[in-house]
Amino acid sequence: MMKRRFASIWFHHLTTDWMTVRRSVMKDVPFVFAAPVHGRMVICAANPVAEQQGVTRGMVVADAKAFLPSLQVIDERPRLSEKLLKAIGHWCIRFTPIVALDEPDGLILDISGCAHLWGGERKYLKTLVSRLKERGYDTRMAIADTIGTAWAIARFGKVKPIIESCDQLDALMPLPPIALRLEPHTLERLQRLGLKTVGSFAAMPRTVLRRRFGDTFLLRLGQALGYEDEFIVPLKPIVPYEERLPCLEPISTDKGIEFALQKLLENLCKRLSGEGKGLREALLKCHRIDGKMEQISIGTSHATANVPHLFNLFALKISQIEPALGIELFILEAPKTEDVDPVQESIWSSRTGLENTAVSELLDRLKSRDGSCEISRYLPDQHYWPERSVKEASSIKEKPIIDWPTDRPRPTRLLSTPEPITVTAPIPDYPPMLFRYKGKMHTIKKADGPERIEREWWMDKGEHRDYYYVEDEKGQRFWLYRSGHYGSSQSGQWFLHGFFA
Protein backbone atom coordinates (compact mmCIF):
# COMPACT_ATOMS: atom_id res chain seq x y z
CA MET A 1 0.00 0.00 0.00
CA MET A 2 1.34 3.45 -0.96
CA LYS A 3 2.42 5.63 1.97
CA ARG A 4 0.39 8.83 2.24
CA ARG A 5 2.37 12.06 2.12
CA PHE A 6 1.01 15.57 2.58
CA ALA A 7 2.31 19.06 1.92
CA SER A 8 1.22 22.25 3.64
CA ILE A 9 1.76 25.63 2.00
CA TRP A 10 1.59 28.75 4.18
CA PHE A 11 1.12 32.16 2.59
CA HIS A 12 2.41 34.48 5.30
CA HIS A 13 1.42 37.63 3.36
CA LEU A 14 -1.28 36.33 1.00
CA THR A 15 -3.39 39.45 0.45
CA THR A 16 -0.54 41.95 0.65
CA ASP A 17 1.54 39.91 -1.81
CA TRP A 18 -1.44 39.96 -4.16
CA MET A 19 -1.64 43.75 -3.91
CA THR A 20 2.09 44.06 -4.55
CA VAL A 21 1.78 41.87 -7.65
CA ARG A 22 -1.00 44.10 -8.97
CA ARG A 23 0.75 47.38 -8.04
CA SER A 24 4.52 46.96 -8.11
CA VAL A 25 5.04 50.50 -6.73
CA MET A 26 3.75 49.23 -3.36
CA LYS A 27 6.67 46.81 -2.94
CA ASP A 28 8.77 49.19 -0.81
CA VAL A 29 5.87 51.05 0.79
CA PRO A 30 4.49 50.03 4.22
CA PHE A 31 0.78 49.29 3.84
CA VAL A 32 -1.96 47.28 5.55
CA PHE A 33 -5.46 45.98 4.96
CA ALA A 34 -7.90 47.11 7.64
CA ALA A 35 -11.55 46.59 8.54
CA PRO A 36 -13.89 48.24 11.10
CA VAL A 37 -14.24 46.33 14.39
CA HIS A 38 -16.48 47.81 17.10
CA GLY A 39 -16.14 51.26 15.63
CA ARG A 40 -12.36 51.16 15.18
CA MET A 41 -10.24 50.32 12.14
CA VAL A 42 -8.21 47.20 12.93
CA ILE A 43 -5.36 45.82 10.81
CA CYS A 44 -6.17 42.50 9.13
CA ALA A 45 -2.93 42.06 7.17
CA ALA A 46 0.38 43.90 6.93
CA ASN A 47 3.03 43.67 4.24
CA PRO A 48 6.66 42.74 5.14
CA VAL A 49 7.84 46.38 5.04
CA ALA A 50 5.21 47.38 7.61
CA GLU A 51 5.96 44.36 9.81
CA GLN A 52 9.65 45.24 9.89
CA GLN A 53 8.69 48.57 11.42
CA GLY A 54 6.55 47.04 14.15
CA VAL A 55 3.09 46.93 12.55
CA THR A 56 1.25 43.66 13.26
CA ARG A 57 -2.11 42.07 12.56
CA GLY A 58 -4.76 42.98 15.14
CA MET A 59 -3.28 46.40 15.86
CA VAL A 60 -5.55 49.45 15.75
CA VAL A 61 -4.79 51.60 12.69
CA ALA A 62 -4.64 54.81 14.72
CA ASP A 63 -1.97 53.33 17.02
CA ALA A 64 0.08 52.10 14.03
CA LYS A 65 -0.02 55.46 12.28
CA ALA A 66 1.07 57.16 15.50
CA PHE A 67 4.58 55.70 15.20
CA LEU A 68 4.53 55.13 11.40
CA PRO A 69 2.86 58.14 9.73
CA SER A 70 3.81 56.91 6.23
CA LEU A 71 1.67 53.76 6.66
CA GLN A 72 -0.88 53.39 3.87
CA VAL A 73 -4.24 51.86 4.81
CA ILE A 74 -6.38 49.92 2.32
CA ASP A 75 -9.90 48.76 3.07
CA GLU A 76 -10.14 45.01 3.41
CA ARG A 77 -11.89 43.25 0.53
CA PRO A 78 -14.53 40.70 1.61
CA ARG A 79 -13.51 37.08 0.99
CA LEU A 80 -10.36 38.14 -0.85
CA SER A 81 -8.17 35.50 0.81
CA GLU A 82 -10.68 32.75 -0.03
CA LYS A 83 -10.78 33.76 -3.70
CA LEU A 84 -6.98 33.93 -3.88
CA LEU A 85 -6.57 30.51 -2.26
CA LYS A 86 -9.05 28.95 -4.68
CA ALA A 87 -7.27 30.44 -7.68
CA ILE A 88 -3.84 29.34 -6.47
CA GLY A 89 -5.26 25.94 -5.47
CA HIS A 90 -6.56 25.33 -8.99
CA TRP A 91 -3.13 26.30 -10.33
CA CYS A 92 -1.50 23.78 -7.95
CA ILE A 93 -3.54 20.94 -9.46
CA ARG A 94 -0.73 20.64 -12.02
CA PHE A 95 1.42 19.31 -9.15
CA THR A 96 -1.16 16.96 -7.60
CA PRO A 97 -4.82 16.20 -8.33
CA ILE A 98 -5.79 16.59 -4.64
CA VAL A 99 -5.62 20.18 -3.38
CA ALA A 100 -7.71 21.53 -0.49
CA LEU A 101 -8.15 24.98 1.03
CA ASP A 102 -6.65 25.60 4.48
CA GLU A 103 -8.20 28.95 5.30
CA PRO A 104 -7.39 31.68 5.94
CA ASP A 105 -3.85 31.51 4.54
CA GLY A 106 -2.87 28.04 3.38
CA LEU A 107 -3.31 25.03 1.14
CA ILE A 108 -3.10 21.30 1.84
CA LEU A 109 -1.80 19.01 -0.91
CA ASP A 110 -1.98 15.22 -0.96
CA ILE A 111 1.24 14.50 -2.87
CA SER A 112 1.16 10.70 -2.53
CA GLY A 113 2.72 9.20 -5.65
CA CYS A 114 3.43 12.62 -7.24
CA ALA A 115 6.84 13.76 -5.97
CA HIS A 116 8.86 11.23 -7.99
CA LEU A 117 7.64 12.91 -11.19
CA TRP A 118 9.74 15.93 -10.21
CA GLY A 119 12.77 13.93 -9.09
CA GLY A 120 11.85 13.45 -5.43
CA GLU A 121 10.27 15.41 -2.59
CA ARG A 122 13.10 17.90 -2.25
CA LYS A 123 12.96 18.95 -5.89
CA TYR A 124 9.17 18.86 -5.77
CA LEU A 125 9.12 21.28 -2.83
CA LYS A 126 11.78 23.52 -4.34
CA THR A 127 9.99 23.68 -7.70
CA LEU A 128 6.62 24.54 -6.19
CA VAL A 129 7.97 27.20 -3.81
CA SER A 130 10.11 28.82 -6.52
CA ARG A 131 7.20 28.86 -8.98
CA LEU A 132 5.00 30.61 -6.41
CA LYS A 133 7.80 33.05 -5.63
CA GLU A 134 8.06 33.89 -9.35
CA ARG A 135 4.39 34.86 -9.16
CA GLY A 136 5.08 37.17 -6.23
CA TYR A 137 3.97 35.02 -3.27
CA ASP A 138 6.16 34.53 -0.20
CA THR A 139 5.49 30.99 1.02
CA ARG A 140 6.71 28.35 3.43
CA MET A 141 6.10 24.69 2.69
CA ALA A 142 6.58 21.42 4.54
CA ILE A 143 6.05 17.73 3.73
CA ALA A 144 5.18 14.98 6.21
CA ASP A 145 3.15 11.81 6.74
CA THR A 146 0.29 13.76 8.34
CA ILE A 147 -1.52 16.99 7.60
CA GLY A 148 -1.03 18.17 11.17
CA THR A 149 2.75 17.77 11.15
CA ALA A 150 3.12 19.36 7.70
CA TRP A 151 0.96 22.31 8.89
CA ALA A 152 3.04 22.74 12.06
CA ILE A 153 6.46 22.56 10.35
CA ALA A 154 5.39 25.00 7.59
CA ARG A 155 4.51 27.65 10.19
CA PHE A 156 6.79 26.95 13.17
CA GLY A 157 9.57 24.65 11.94
CA LYS A 158 13.12 25.96 12.34
CA VAL A 159 15.22 23.26 10.66
CA LYS A 160 14.21 21.03 7.74
CA PRO A 161 10.93 21.31 5.83
CA ILE A 162 10.72 17.62 4.85
CA ILE A 163 9.93 15.21 7.68
CA GLU A 164 10.92 11.64 6.99
CA SER A 165 8.29 8.94 7.28
CA CYS A 166 7.26 8.12 10.88
CA ASP A 167 9.44 10.95 12.32
CA GLN A 168 6.60 13.33 13.09
CA LEU A 169 6.89 13.02 16.90
CA ASP A 170 10.56 14.05 16.91
CA ALA A 171 9.77 16.94 14.58
CA LEU A 172 6.94 18.23 16.77
CA MET A 173 8.69 17.95 20.15
CA PRO A 174 10.42 21.41 20.14
CA LEU A 175 7.44 23.29 18.65
CA PRO A 176 5.01 25.45 20.69
CA PRO A 177 1.50 24.04 21.45
CA ILE A 178 -0.08 26.44 18.93
CA ALA A 179 1.52 24.29 16.19
CA LEU A 180 -1.13 21.62 16.95
CA ARG A 181 -3.97 23.96 15.84
CA LEU A 182 -5.45 24.07 19.35
CA GLU A 183 -8.24 26.33 20.54
CA PRO A 184 -7.31 29.64 22.31
CA HIS A 185 -8.65 28.62 25.73
CA THR A 186 -6.62 25.39 25.58
CA LEU A 187 -3.48 27.32 24.70
CA GLU A 188 -4.05 29.65 27.67
CA ARG A 189 -4.39 26.69 30.04
CA LEU A 190 -1.18 25.10 28.71
CA GLN A 191 0.62 28.44 29.16
CA ARG A 192 -0.55 28.73 32.78
CA LEU A 193 0.69 25.19 33.47
CA GLY A 194 4.10 26.00 31.99
CA LEU A 195 3.75 23.52 29.11
CA LYS A 196 5.52 25.56 26.46
CA THR A 197 6.42 22.86 23.93
CA VAL A 198 4.73 19.78 22.48
CA GLY A 199 7.45 17.65 24.03
CA SER A 200 6.48 18.82 27.53
CA PHE A 201 3.15 16.98 27.38
CA ALA A 202 3.28 14.53 24.43
CA ALA A 203 4.38 11.64 26.67
CA MET A 204 1.72 12.23 29.36
CA PRO A 205 -1.02 9.55 29.77
CA ARG A 206 -4.00 10.12 27.50
CA THR A 207 -6.41 9.90 30.44
CA VAL A 208 -4.64 12.82 32.11
CA LEU A 209 -4.65 14.91 28.93
CA ARG A 210 -8.34 14.18 28.28
CA ARG A 211 -9.35 15.11 31.82
CA ARG A 212 -7.43 18.41 31.72
CA PHE A 213 -7.85 19.52 28.10
CA GLY A 214 -10.74 17.55 26.54
CA ASP A 215 -11.25 15.30 23.52
CA THR A 216 -10.49 18.00 20.92
CA PHE A 217 -6.98 18.35 22.33
CA LEU A 218 -6.35 14.60 21.97
CA LEU A 219 -7.83 14.62 18.46
CA ARG A 220 -5.43 17.34 17.27
CA LEU A 221 -2.45 15.63 18.87
CA GLY A 222 -3.47 12.28 17.36
CA GLN A 223 -3.95 13.79 13.90
CA ALA A 224 -0.49 15.34 13.98
CA LEU A 225 1.14 12.10 15.13
CA GLY A 226 -0.85 9.88 12.77
CA TYR A 227 -3.01 8.08 15.37
CA GLU A 228 -6.21 9.77 14.16
CA ASP A 229 -7.44 10.11 10.57
CA GLU A 230 -7.84 13.55 9.02
CA PHE A 231 -9.72 14.13 5.79
CA ILE A 232 -9.70 16.99 3.32
CA VAL A 233 -12.20 18.15 0.71
CA PRO A 234 -10.47 18.58 -2.68
CA LEU A 235 -11.13 21.69 -4.76
CA LYS A 236 -11.86 19.53 -7.80
CA PRO A 237 -13.70 16.19 -7.71
CA ILE A 238 -11.31 13.37 -8.46
CA VAL A 239 -11.93 11.77 -11.85
CA PRO A 240 -11.71 7.96 -11.44
CA TYR A 241 -9.93 7.56 -14.77
CA GLU A 242 -7.20 10.16 -15.17
CA GLU A 243 -3.61 10.11 -16.40
CA ARG A 244 -1.03 12.86 -15.85
CA LEU A 245 2.20 13.57 -17.73
CA PRO A 246 4.51 16.36 -16.48
CA CYS A 247 7.17 17.65 -18.86
CA LEU A 248 10.82 18.18 -18.02
CA GLU A 249 10.89 20.95 -20.63
CA PRO A 250 7.87 22.99 -21.84
CA ILE A 251 6.18 21.56 -24.96
CA SER A 252 5.27 24.07 -27.66
CA THR A 253 4.94 22.03 -30.88
CA ASP A 254 2.14 19.88 -32.32
CA LYS A 255 4.53 16.91 -32.53
CA GLY A 256 5.29 17.20 -28.83
CA ILE A 257 1.59 17.37 -27.99
CA GLU A 258 0.91 14.31 -30.16
CA PHE A 259 3.66 12.36 -28.39
CA ALA A 260 2.25 13.26 -24.97
CA LEU A 261 -1.29 12.40 -26.07
CA GLN A 262 -0.18 9.00 -27.42
CA LYS A 263 1.52 8.17 -24.13
CA LEU A 264 -1.50 9.21 -22.06
CA LEU A 265 -3.94 7.27 -24.23
CA GLU A 266 -1.84 4.12 -24.01
CA ASN A 267 -1.74 4.30 -20.20
CA LEU A 268 -5.43 5.17 -19.84
CA CYS A 269 -6.71 2.56 -22.31
CA LYS A 270 -4.52 -0.14 -20.78
CA ARG A 271 -6.16 0.56 -17.44
CA LEU A 272 -9.65 0.69 -18.92
CA SER A 273 -9.17 -2.56 -20.83
CA GLY A 274 -7.91 -4.28 -17.70
CA GLU A 275 -11.12 -3.33 -15.91
CA GLY A 276 -13.41 -4.25 -18.81
CA LYS A 277 -14.37 -0.66 -19.58
CA GLY A 278 -14.26 1.79 -22.45
CA LEU A 279 -14.59 5.57 -22.55
CA ARG A 280 -17.46 7.56 -24.02
CA GLU A 281 -15.99 11.00 -23.33
CA ALA A 282 -12.38 12.16 -22.96
CA LEU A 283 -10.83 15.51 -22.06
CA LEU A 284 -7.22 16.58 -22.66
CA LYS A 285 -6.06 19.45 -20.42
CA CYS A 286 -2.83 21.27 -21.23
CA HIS A 287 -1.43 23.42 -18.40
CA ARG A 288 0.83 26.17 -19.73
CA ILE A 289 3.77 27.68 -17.88
CA ASP A 290 1.98 31.06 -17.83
CA GLY A 291 -0.70 29.58 -15.56
CA LYS A 292 -3.40 29.25 -18.22
CA MET A 293 -4.94 26.03 -19.46
CA GLU A 294 -5.92 24.83 -22.93
CA GLN A 295 -8.25 21.87 -23.40
CA ILE A 296 -9.92 19.79 -26.10
CA SER A 297 -12.51 17.03 -25.76
CA ILE A 298 -13.93 14.16 -27.78
CA GLY A 299 -16.96 11.88 -27.56
CA THR A 300 -17.57 8.40 -28.94
CA SER A 301 -20.72 6.62 -30.10
CA HIS A 302 -19.85 3.48 -28.14
CA ALA A 303 -17.50 2.69 -25.27
CA THR A 304 -14.02 1.99 -26.59
CA ALA A 305 -10.42 1.63 -25.49
CA ASN A 306 -9.06 1.64 -29.05
CA VAL A 307 -5.95 3.85 -28.87
CA PRO A 308 -5.53 4.55 -32.63
CA HIS A 309 -9.19 5.54 -33.01
CA LEU A 310 -9.13 7.85 -29.97
CA PHE A 311 -5.83 9.39 -31.08
CA ASN A 312 -7.27 10.15 -34.53
CA LEU A 313 -10.26 11.90 -32.94
CA PHE A 314 -7.99 14.08 -30.79
CA ALA A 315 -5.60 14.71 -33.70
CA LEU A 316 -8.38 16.56 -35.55
CA LYS A 317 -8.46 19.13 -32.71
CA ILE A 318 -4.80 19.52 -31.73
CA SER A 319 -4.54 22.62 -33.93
CA GLN A 320 -7.00 24.32 -31.53
CA ILE A 321 -4.43 24.18 -28.71
CA GLU A 322 -2.38 27.35 -28.26
CA PRO A 323 0.79 26.34 -26.34
CA ALA A 324 2.13 29.92 -26.07
CA LEU A 325 5.47 29.71 -24.19
CA GLY A 326 5.01 26.01 -23.58
CA ILE A 327 2.94 23.32 -21.85
CA GLU A 328 4.34 21.85 -18.64
CA LEU A 329 1.64 19.32 -17.71
CA PHE A 330 -0.81 17.17 -19.68
CA ILE A 331 -3.86 15.61 -18.02
CA LEU A 332 -6.14 13.14 -19.80
CA GLU A 333 -9.52 12.52 -18.16
CA ALA A 334 -12.29 10.05 -18.98
CA PRO A 335 -15.32 11.49 -17.14
CA LYS A 336 -17.76 9.06 -18.78
CA THR A 337 -17.03 5.35 -19.14
CA GLU A 338 -19.10 2.23 -19.74
CA ASP A 339 -18.62 -1.51 -19.38
CA VAL A 340 -17.43 -3.32 -22.49
CA ASP A 341 -17.92 -7.01 -23.21
CA PRO A 342 -14.46 -8.29 -24.26
CA VAL A 343 -15.96 -11.20 -26.22
CA GLN A 344 -18.25 -8.88 -28.16
CA GLU A 345 -15.31 -6.57 -28.86
CA SER A 346 -13.29 -9.36 -30.47
CA ILE A 347 -15.95 -10.35 -33.01
CA TRP A 348 -17.16 -6.90 -34.03
CA SER A 349 -14.88 -6.82 -37.04
CA SER A 350 -16.90 -9.63 -38.66
CA ARG A 351 -20.27 -7.98 -38.12
CA THR A 352 -22.20 -5.48 -40.18
CA GLY A 353 -24.60 -2.66 -39.44
CA LEU A 354 -24.56 -0.97 -36.04
CA GLU A 355 -22.54 -3.85 -34.57
CA ASN A 356 -19.59 -2.95 -36.77
CA THR A 357 -17.12 -0.68 -34.95
CA ALA A 358 -16.17 0.92 -38.29
CA VAL A 359 -19.65 2.50 -38.41
CA SER A 360 -19.42 4.07 -34.97
CA GLU A 361 -15.83 5.18 -35.59
CA LEU A 362 -16.93 6.87 -38.82
CA LEU A 363 -19.65 8.74 -36.92
CA ASP A 364 -17.10 9.80 -34.29
CA ARG A 365 -14.80 11.22 -36.98
CA LEU A 366 -17.64 13.10 -38.65
CA LYS A 367 -18.63 14.74 -35.37
CA SER A 368 -15.02 15.59 -34.51
CA ARG A 369 -14.39 17.25 -37.88
CA ASP A 370 -17.40 19.57 -37.58
CA GLY A 371 -18.53 20.68 -34.14
CA SER A 372 -21.94 21.69 -35.54
CA CYS A 373 -22.55 18.18 -36.91
CA GLU A 374 -25.43 16.47 -35.10
CA ILE A 375 -25.93 12.74 -35.72
CA SER A 376 -28.95 11.14 -34.08
CA ARG A 377 -30.46 7.68 -34.00
CA TYR A 378 -34.15 7.13 -33.31
CA LEU A 379 -36.07 4.25 -31.76
CA PRO A 380 -39.81 3.48 -31.50
CA ASP A 381 -41.45 4.55 -28.26
CA GLN A 382 -44.50 3.16 -26.50
CA HIS A 383 -47.02 5.83 -27.56
CA TYR A 384 -49.92 5.94 -30.00
CA TRP A 385 -49.71 9.69 -30.58
CA PRO A 386 -47.33 10.16 -33.57
CA GLU A 387 -45.23 12.97 -32.06
CA ARG A 388 -44.44 10.76 -29.06
CA SER A 389 -44.01 7.46 -30.88
CA VAL A 390 -40.32 8.13 -31.67
CA LYS A 391 -37.49 8.88 -29.25
CA GLU A 392 -33.81 9.71 -29.65
CA ALA A 393 -31.45 6.88 -28.69
CA SER A 394 -28.90 7.59 -25.97
CA SER A 395 -26.20 5.60 -27.78
CA ILE A 396 -25.62 3.60 -30.93
CA LYS A 397 -25.92 0.38 -28.93
CA GLU A 398 -29.26 1.09 -27.24
CA LYS A 399 -31.84 -1.58 -28.04
CA PRO A 400 -35.50 -0.75 -28.78
CA ILE A 401 -38.08 -1.82 -26.22
CA ILE A 402 -40.69 -2.43 -28.93
CA ASP A 403 -40.56 -3.14 -32.67
CA TRP A 404 -41.26 -0.54 -35.32
CA PRO A 405 -44.96 -0.76 -36.30
CA THR A 406 -45.47 -2.38 -39.72
CA ASP A 407 -49.21 -2.99 -39.76
CA ARG A 408 -49.94 0.61 -40.80
CA PRO A 409 -48.04 2.93 -43.16
CA ARG A 410 -45.81 5.43 -41.38
CA PRO A 411 -43.85 8.25 -43.07
CA THR A 412 -40.11 8.15 -43.52
CA ARG A 413 -39.90 11.74 -42.36
CA LEU A 414 -42.24 12.82 -39.57
CA LEU A 415 -42.59 16.57 -39.02
CA SER A 416 -42.02 17.59 -35.41
CA THR A 417 -44.92 20.04 -35.74
CA PRO A 418 -47.81 19.33 -38.19
CA GLU A 419 -48.20 22.10 -40.77
CA PRO A 420 -51.67 23.40 -41.74
CA ILE A 421 -52.84 22.89 -45.33
CA THR A 422 -55.88 23.87 -47.44
CA VAL A 423 -57.88 20.82 -48.55
CA THR A 424 -60.80 20.13 -50.88
CA ALA A 425 -62.77 17.00 -49.89
CA PRO A 426 -66.11 15.84 -51.37
CA ILE A 427 -67.99 14.56 -48.30
CA PRO A 428 -67.12 13.74 -44.66
CA ASP A 429 -64.80 10.78 -44.09
CA TYR A 430 -63.67 10.87 -47.73
CA PRO A 431 -60.02 11.51 -48.50
CA PRO A 432 -59.22 14.93 -49.98
CA MET A 433 -59.24 15.45 -53.72
CA LEU A 434 -56.49 18.05 -53.66
CA PHE A 435 -54.57 20.17 -51.15
CA ARG A 436 -52.37 23.25 -51.16
CA TYR A 437 -49.05 23.21 -49.27
CA LYS A 438 -46.62 26.18 -49.24
CA GLY A 439 -48.40 27.74 -52.21
CA LYS A 440 -48.25 24.61 -54.36
CA MET A 441 -51.32 22.64 -55.43
CA HIS A 442 -51.23 18.82 -55.23
CA THR A 443 -53.90 16.74 -57.02
CA ILE A 444 -54.46 13.43 -55.26
CA LYS A 445 -54.56 10.31 -57.45
CA LYS A 446 -54.46 7.61 -54.77
CA ALA A 447 -55.54 7.60 -51.14
CA ASP A 448 -56.01 5.22 -48.22
CA GLY A 449 -57.79 5.89 -44.93
CA PRO A 450 -58.99 7.13 -42.63
CA GLU A 451 -56.92 5.73 -39.74
CA ARG A 452 -58.25 7.23 -36.53
CA ILE A 453 -55.71 7.92 -33.78
CA GLU A 454 -57.20 8.97 -30.46
CA ARG A 455 -55.39 11.51 -28.33
CA GLU A 456 -53.69 10.20 -25.18
CA TRP A 457 -56.16 11.83 -22.81
CA TRP A 458 -54.08 11.07 -19.71
CA MET A 459 -51.33 13.31 -21.08
CA ASP A 460 -53.23 16.17 -22.75
CA LYS A 461 -56.64 17.19 -24.05
CA GLY A 462 -57.83 17.76 -27.62
CA GLU A 463 -59.46 16.24 -30.70
CA HIS A 464 -58.69 12.91 -32.28
CA ARG A 465 -57.11 12.72 -35.73
CA ASP A 466 -58.16 10.94 -38.95
CA TYR A 467 -55.05 10.17 -41.00
CA TYR A 468 -54.89 9.56 -44.77
CA TYR A 469 -52.05 8.09 -46.81
CA VAL A 470 -52.17 9.92 -50.17
CA GLU A 471 -50.21 10.09 -53.44
CA ASP A 472 -50.32 13.02 -55.90
CA GLU A 473 -50.05 13.09 -59.69
CA LYS A 474 -46.22 13.17 -59.55
CA GLY A 475 -45.97 10.09 -57.34
CA GLN A 476 -45.14 12.04 -54.16
CA ARG A 477 -46.67 10.51 -51.06
CA PHE A 478 -47.88 12.36 -47.96
CA TRP A 479 -49.40 11.70 -44.53
CA LEU A 480 -52.36 14.03 -43.98
CA TYR A 481 -54.92 14.24 -41.19
CA ARG A 482 -58.12 16.01 -40.30
CA SER A 483 -58.44 17.14 -36.68
CA GLY A 484 -61.77 16.20 -35.09
CA HIS A 485 -65.21 15.52 -36.68
CA TYR A 486 -66.91 17.50 -39.38
CA GLY A 487 -69.38 19.85 -37.78
CA SER A 488 -67.28 20.33 -34.63
CA SER A 489 -65.47 23.51 -33.66
CA GLN A 490 -62.38 22.07 -35.32
CA SER A 491 -64.21 21.31 -38.58
CA GLY A 492 -62.16 21.66 -41.72
CA GLN A 493 -58.74 21.82 -40.02
CA TRP A 494 -56.32 19.74 -42.10
CA PHE A 495 -52.61 19.22 -41.56
CA LEU A 496 -49.61 17.69 -43.28
CA HIS A 497 -47.65 15.51 -40.83
CA GLY A 498 -45.11 13.56 -42.85
CA PHE A 499 -43.52 12.45 -46.13
CA PHE A 500 -43.03 8.94 -47.47
CA ALA A 501 -39.98 7.88 -49.43
UniProtKB/TrEMBL annotation:
Domain called UmuC: residue spans: 13-152
Recorded superkingdom: Bacteria
CDD domains: PolY_like
Keyword Cell inner membrane attached: no
UniProt cross-references to Gene3D superfamilies, sorted A to Z: 3.30.70.270, 3.40.1170.60
Record has DNA damage as a keyword: yes
Alphabetic keyword roster: DNA damage
Entry's family note: Belongs to the DNA polymerase type-Y family.
Protein name in the entry: DNA polymerase Y family protein
